[in-house]
């Protein structure tokens, strides 16, 4: 059975859902699947959480993404405080103690309301790939309000999703460059990654192979579409369709707000760090605009990346954030290794939030709940046992009463319980005697009467007043119309082979006209 490493990156945007499923087998073979689902956003009701939850649940069911147990999502940079701090020492234990105090001086919120994550950045790399020697430490610090993380987790929980990790969207962009570098691509060490989305643009500045600036610019492709819709007096959908057929030079007037924010960010970083970036990669859904990568790079004074740097046609431009989440370095192991690399730079706000939870208070509350639950369960168990005992006793009483009634119906109320076997034998013998009367195999009464009736003279009216059967002897008292009829009946039975000893014992005139009463004895042969 092949060992497979699988992870799903889920990018929940304002106008669509994007997911990337990354699989790597033990042999090193990789498969990457891309999934996308657009979501309406023009009306206020389209942005309701319940509707977005239904869309997310249907999206995951449709593409079978619930089957994975490793799913990574992201929180946008705009919901975080992000800084790169420098310290004059490298002791990891000291850094863990000092970072919260530095953040407390920079963020206007109590530390207990923040989920603080930090990454100790590796030494910078030269253009040849060699690490620089330094006594200082650079730490990338992120501070997210816990209510933002909790809100994100509640939204996913409503869609029955439990993420394995929560990254930052800009760090997911950096993970793409890490992956390309592991694959052998010549990724520039000084790079500006610009992910143009529908409602925002995410910026990740990479200096000497390390992420140094993470930022969100509140300008996206929808701003350009709205401007086109107003300029050309058409609907938003029509403007979106036309935008996809245009070149960047046709819409450059509306790109100036984005370029201005990018220039400000680059100049602020370069002025403080005294370093300059060299290349630029434009990704996201907005990268589908023709020649936008070259246009943005030229106006920022950078070189656009291409296949030579590893950003060819197979690089996931439109799914860059989702792809970066799917190759989370803390989850997906590097090729030919069985454990994730400890050097992988990626954030996990979920683990930070879980680690910062008040475990002691939770444990006491859990103990109280456990004791209360045990008491309730004990009481319910006692009630259950008593109810079962009562019901069983009532059932036994009812069965005894029913058996007694059946016994009295069969053997009578005078029969004393205890001699049921003798009573049954007596009743069985009585039944056998009654059955013997109708059993034709032993010369029963019914067979004898049947033989007698068959031999009555046809066409002769005979009214039977009394019929007595004593074994094989039939005593009959009847009425007929004349003495000749009586004689005819006698001759008929006397001449019949089944009978013997036919005798008429009495013949007299009846009270009614044409009525003759007679008595006859007939013996049936055995």
TrEMBL record:
Protein name, per record: GspL periplasmic domain-containing protein
The organism of origin for this protein: Nitrospira moscoviensis
Organism phylogeny: Bacteria, Pseudomonadati, Nitrospirota, Nitrospiria, Nitrospirales
Keyword Transmembrane helix belongs to the record: yes
Stored Gene3D superfamilies: 3.30.1490.300, 3.30.420.40
Superkingdom of source: Bacteria
Sorted UniProt keywords: Membrane, Transmembrane, Transmembrane helix
Transmembrane residue ranges: 369-391
InterPro entries per UniProt: ATPase_NBD, FtsA/MreB, PilM
């Amino acid at each position: 059975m092949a060992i497979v490493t699988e992870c799903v990156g889920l990018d929940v945007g304002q106008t669509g859902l994007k997911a990337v499923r990354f699989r790597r087998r033990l042999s090193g073979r990789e498969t990457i699947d891309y999934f996308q689902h657009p979501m309406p956003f023009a009306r206020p009701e389209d942005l309701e959480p319940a509707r977005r939850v239904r869309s997310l649940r249907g999206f995951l069911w449709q593409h079978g993404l619930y089957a994975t147990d490793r799913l990574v999502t992201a929180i946008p940079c705009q919901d975080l405080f992000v800084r790169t701090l420098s310290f004059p020492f490298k002791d990891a234990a000291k850094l863990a103690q000092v970072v919260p105090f530095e953040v407390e001086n920079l963020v206007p919120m109590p530390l207990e309301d923040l989920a603080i994550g930090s990454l100790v950045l590796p030494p910078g790399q030269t253009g040849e790939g060699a690490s620089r020697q330094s006594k200082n430490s650079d730490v990338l610090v992120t501070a997210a309000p816990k209510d933002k993380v909790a809100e994100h987790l509640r939204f996913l929980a409503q869609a029955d999703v439990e993420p394995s990790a929560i990254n930052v969207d800009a760090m997911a962009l950096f993970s793409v460059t890490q992956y390309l570098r592991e694959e052998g691509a010549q990724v520039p060490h000084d790079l500006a990654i610009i992910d143009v989305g529908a409602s925002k643009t995410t910026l990740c500045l990479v200096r000497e192979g390390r992420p140094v600036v993470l930022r969100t610019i509140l300008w996206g492709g929808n701003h350009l579409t709205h401007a086109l819709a107003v300029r050309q007096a058409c609907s938003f959908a029509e403007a979106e369709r036309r935008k996809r057929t245009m070149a960047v030079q046709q819409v450059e007037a509306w790109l100036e707000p984005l370029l201005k924010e990018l220039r400000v960010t680059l100049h602020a970083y370069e002025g403080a760090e005294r370093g300059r970036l060299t290349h630029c990669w434009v990704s996201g859904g907005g990268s589908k605009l023709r020649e936008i990568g070259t246009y943005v790079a030229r106006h920022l004074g950078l070189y656009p990346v291409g296949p030579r740097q590893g950003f060819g046609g197979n690089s996931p431009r439109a799914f860059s954030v989702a792809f970066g989440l799917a190759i989370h370095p803390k989850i997906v192991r590097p090729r030919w290794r069985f454990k994730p690399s400890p050097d992988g730079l990626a954030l996990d706000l979920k683990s930070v939030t879980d680690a910062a939870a008040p475990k002691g208070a939770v444990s006491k509350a859990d103990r109280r709940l456990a004791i209360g639950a045990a008491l309730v369960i004990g009481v319910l168990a006692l009630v259950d046992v008593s109810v079962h005992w009562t019901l069983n006793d009532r059932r036994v009483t009812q069965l005894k009463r029913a058996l007694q009634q059946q016994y009295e119906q069969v053997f009578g109320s005078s029969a004393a319980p205890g001699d049921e076997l003798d009573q049954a034998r007596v009743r069985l013998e009585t039944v056998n005697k009654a059955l013997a009367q109708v059993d034709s195999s032993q010369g029963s009464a019914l067979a004898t009467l049947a033989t007698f009736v068959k031999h009555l003279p046809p066409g002769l009216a005979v009214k039977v007043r009394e019929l007595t059967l004593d074994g094989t002897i039939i005593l009959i008292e009847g009425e007929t119309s004349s003495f000749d009829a009586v004689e005819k009946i006698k001759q008929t039975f006397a001449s019949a082979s089944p009978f013997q000893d036919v005798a008429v014992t009495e013949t007299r005139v009846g009270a009614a006209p044409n009525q003759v009463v007679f008595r006859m004895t007939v013996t049936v042969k055995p």
